[in-house]
Design a protein that fits this description.
By secondary structure, the protein is mostly beta strands. It contains no helices and nine strands. The relative contact order is 0.28. This is ATP synthase, Delta/Epsilon chain, beta-sandwich domain protein. Belongs to the ATPase epsilon chain family. It holds the Pfam family ATP-synt_DE_N.
């Protein structure tokens, strides 16, 4: 059985921080703040190891359900977002996954065989 990790049309992204796993899942692209400038990783990207600087790590999830960890005030919280569920505040229908953003202080990223592993310090 083919899994999302085996799909050559997507990337498997893991975003790790000292607080724990921030995100893990299939994505269509990842844009990172490299020390030599911003760059985007797409499926079938060449192997890469790069340092990251202050800026935004953005990615487009493929799944209709997105899970991860974040902060609310000073507390760490787990979150889950289901595409198609209305936003309680606006009544918006999220039938498509939306771009996700993490503000970074620094870190590094490894890209290899359609896998992207980013170890980061968040802002």
């Amino acid at each position: 059985m083919k899994t999302e990790r085996d799909d050559s049309r997507s990337l498997w992204l893991r975003v790790l921080s000292p607080e724990g796993l921030l995100f893990e899942g299939a994505v269509s692209r990842v844009t990172l703040p490299g020390s030599q400038g911003r760059f985007t990783v797409l499926p079938q990207h060449a192997p890469l190891l790069a340092s990251l600087t202050r800026g935004n790590l953005t990615f487009m999830p493929l799944a209709t359900e997105v899970t991860g960890m974040g902060t609310l005030g000073t507390e760490s919280v787990a979150w889950s977002s289901q595409a198609g569920e209305p936003d309680a505040g606006r009544g918006t229908d999220f039938s498509e996954p939306c771009e996700q953003v993490f503000a970074l202080r620094e870190g590094f990223v490894e890209v290899r065989q359609n896998q992207v592993i980013a170890c980061v310090e968040r802002e």
